[in-house]
Amino acid sequence: MDLVPALEEPLKQPLKSVLGPATAKVMAEHLGLHSVGDLLHHYPRRYEERGQLTHLADLPMDEHVTVVAQVADARLHTFASAKAPRGKGQRLEVTITDGSGRLQLVFFGHGVHKPHKELLPGTRAMFAGKVSVFNRRLQLAHPAYELLHGDSEETVETWAGALIPIYPATAKLESWKIGKAVQTVLPSAQEALDPLPDTLREGRGLLPLPEALLKIHRPHTKADIAGARDRLKWDEAFVLQVALARRRHADTQLPAVPRTPRPDGILAAFDDRLPFTLTEGQRKVSKEIFDDLATDHPMHRLLQGEVGSGKTMVALRAMLAVVDAGGQAAMLAPTEVLAQQHHRSITEMMGELAEGGMLGGAEHATKVVLLTGSMGAAARRRALLDLATGEAGLVVGTHALIEDKIQFHDLGLVVVDEQHRFGVEQRDALRGKGKQPPHLLVMTATPIPRTVAMTVFGDLETSVLDQLPAGRSPIASHVVPAADKPHFLARAWERVREEVTNGHQAYVVCPRIGDEEDDPKKAGRKKSAEDEAEKRPPLAVLDVAGRLNSGPLQGLRVEVLHGRMHPDDKDAVMRRFAAGETDVLVATTVIEVGVNVPNATAMVIMDADRFGVSQLHQLRGRVGRGAAPGLCLLVSEMPEASAARQRLNAVASTLDGFELSRIDLEQRREGDVLGQAQSGARSSLRVLAVIEDEEVIAEAREEAASLVAADPELERLPGLRTALAALLDEEREQYLEKG
Fold first, then answer.
1. What angle do CA 365, 368, 373 make, to 5 degrees?
2. Strand-pair partners of 589
C-alpha cells in the first residue's frame, strides 16, 4: 500500500538466504505476496495467547486450522497392511487438549519417528492441518507442528511475547512459517511512507504507520492490536476514498451538454397520460436526476430501488427529458429477455408517443427501437439507421449497443439496468459513443448498504426509492423443508394449483437447465460435508417441468424458460405467460430481474439454498406485482441447523432488501465487497470491515473530499500518492476510471 523502494523489494531475490526461493514461490503463487510491502500488509487473522488455549470444541470441518494445545497422551500402534504385511506398519496417535475439547492427531509410516520423540505428554505446540472425521471423531492427519518452548530466548523473540499471531495460511505454508518470514522483513517497516496527512493522523490520535505495522505483527498487549487495527483501517478507508473523490472531481471537470425538458414537450405529454400519480419518492428522485441533467458536466448517479419500486418509470421520464432537449437516450439491459421486456413496457406506457414518424403518432412522438444481438439483418439495418439519423430518440438493447459499428446522432443519456451484471468496460464503451460524455444513470434493484455504496460506488451520487407504488401487494414467504417434511412439498404444489384455480399464475425456479453434459471435472469435486443434499446436482428446469407435468401439476399449462433457448422462443414463451396463456412457468434465474406479470402470484424456488440472499430477494420480487397478495415458497433439503437454512429463514422473515443485503454481506468474505468481478484486482480490504466500520468509512469520505478539493493532484502528499499508486494497480485504476 505504501510501496517505497525498501518495501518494493521482491521476496524472491534479496532475501534468498532468509526466505528461500521455495517459500517466496509459495507466497507469490498461493497468497499473492510478491514484495516486502505485500508481506508486511499480510496481517494476522487472529492471535493466540500462550497462557490461554484455543477452542478445540469449535473446529470447523474441512478447513485448514491452526491450534495451540497441549499433548495429553501419545501411543504408538503397530498393524499389518498391504505395504507392511508382517505387522510392521506403525501409527502414532496423539491426543491434544485445550480445556475446551480434545483432538486426535495421527501420523503413519516413516512420519511417526520425529513426532514420537518430540510430542511427549505435557508438551505445548502449535498444530496446523485440515480437520477431518475418522470413526466419528475429529482428527488432524499428519499435521505440521511447531513446539512452543517458553524458556527459549529465540522462540519468545520469534513469537512476539505473549501473543502468537495466526496468519491466513495455506496447506503449503503454515501460519508460523509466514510469521517467521514477517519477522525477517519487519525492520523494513521503519521505511514505510505514511499515506495519512500528519494533521489528520494527529487530529484523530492514530499511530504512525511504521509503529502500526510493528504492533500488528508483534503485539505485546491487546491494546497494541487495537491501536494498530484502528490505524490500518483508516489507511484502507482513506486511500480508497481519496481515489473515489479524485474520480468525482475529475468528472466535474468533464464537459457535457445540459439537457432540460421543454414545458410542453414529450415528457409533459407522457405525464398527462399516466393513469396514476407518481409516488413521493419517484418525484423526489426525478427532481435529483433532472437537476443533474441540467448541469454542464455529466451526471453519474446510482438509482437504488426495491424490487417493484418503479425505477423504470423514473428512468423513462429521465430519458424523455433528454429527448425533449434534442438528444437520444439508451437503456442497456443485461439479457435479451429483459431488453425485450423493457422495450415492450416502455412502448406500452408511451402509447402513441412511441410512434414517431408513423401515422397516428402524437405530435411530440419519437421512435423507440430495440437492438439485440439476435435481430434479423433487415430489422437491424432499420434500427441502426434510426439511431444514426436521430429519428429514434430512445433505444433499448443489450451489449449489442456497444459494438463499434453503432453510431448515435446525439447520445445524451445512458441508463444501465442491473449494474452488477454489466462490465465496467462495456459501460465505458457506451459512454464513448456521445460527442461529449453522456449523462449516466445506473439502476440496481439489489439494495446496497450505505457503506458499500460509499465504498464500491463511491464515485456515483446515490438516489434511493424506498416506497412501493400504490396497488402493490405484500408477499408471504415460507421455507419448505422437503427432506424433513415431504408433506410440506406436496402442500406447496397444492397451493400452486389453488392459485391457478383462482385465475392466477405461478413461477417455479430451478438452479440449472438440465441439458448440460455432466462435466467429469465438476463431478470429481469435493462436496461440502454440510449434508447429503449437497451431494446431488442442483435440480434442473427440464427435469422438474417433466415431473410436474406428469405428477402434481398434471393438467395445468406448464412451459419452460431458460437462457439457452433461441431468443425468439424465449420471447414467445414470455408473451404467452404475460397474456395468461400459460399457468406455470418453470424457469432458471432469467426471470430474476425486470420481468413484470402482475397476474403471477406464486413462486416456488427449488433448491433455494443454492441461491444467494440478494438473488432470492430479487426472484421473490416477481410476484405480488398486482392487486392479489404474493406467495413465495423456498424449498430446501438442507438440515434445520445448517447455515444454508438460517439464510433461507432470514429471507422468509423480512421483505426489507436493505436488511437482507446486510445479512448477505456479512455472510460473504469481506474482500468480495470491492467486487472481484468488477475490478479483476486483488481486494485491497484487509482490516476494514465494510459493515462494521461504517463510521470510519463515512469520516474518511468527508476527509478525502475536502483534501481533494484543496489539492486535487496531491502535490503536498507524496506518501498518499505512493499509496494510491499501489492501490490502483492497472486494472483497479481502469475500474475506478470507468466507474
1. 170
2. none
Q: How much is the pLDDT for 258?
A: 92
- Residue 201 near residue 649 (C-beta atoms within 8 A): no
**Least confident stretch, 149-153, 405-409, 548-552, 717-721:** 149-153
> How far is 653 from 344, CA to CA, in rounded Å?
34
Q: Is the separation of the CB atoms in 104 and 119 below 8 Å?
A: no
Angle between helix axes 694-710 and 222-253 (nearest 10 degrees) is: 50
Neighbours of 507 (CB within 10 A): 25
Supply the Cα-derived Rg of the chain in whole angstroms. 30
Q: Are 601 and 594 in contact (CB under 8 A)?
A: no
- Residue 330's pLDDT is 93
Burial of 545 (0-12, 13-18, 19+ CB in 10 A): buried
- Edge to edge, the sheet with strand 461-465 lists 367-371, 392-397, 328-332, 411-417, 439-444, 300-305, 461-465
Q: How far apart are CA 381 and CA 371, in angstroms?
A: 10
Cα–Cα distances (Å) from 112 to 80, 105, 116, 287, in that order, read 16, 11, 6, 75
User: What is the rounded distance in angstroms from the CA atom of residue 402 to the CA atom of residue 431?
Assistant: 9
- Nearest residue to 63 via CA among 43, 45, 49: 45
C-alpha cell at 693: 466500520
Question: What are the pLDDT digits (tens) for 283-335?
Answer: 999 999 999 999 998 898 888 887 667 888 999 999 999 999 999 999 988 88
Q: If you count them, how many residues does the chain have?
A: 739
Q: CA-CA distance, 207 to 147, in Å (whole number)?
A: 33
Is residue 208 within 8 A of residue 216, CB to CB? The reply is no
In degrees, rounded to 5, the angle at the alpha carbon of residue 346 between the alpha carbons of residues 344 and 351 is: 95
- Mean pLDDT check: name the lowest of 30-34, 88-92, 677-681: 677-681
Distance in angstroms (rounded) separating the CA atoms of residues 495 and 506? 10
Q: Which amino acid is at 109?
A: G
Interhelix angle 311-324/266-273, nearest 10 degrees: 150
| pTM summary value | 0.64
CB atoms < 10 A from the CB of 121, how many?
A: 11
φ and ψ of 516, to 5 deg: -75, 150
* 513-530: b (≥16 Cβ within 10 Å) or e: bbeeeeeeeeeeeeeeeb
CA-nearest of 310, 320, 316 to 277 is: 310
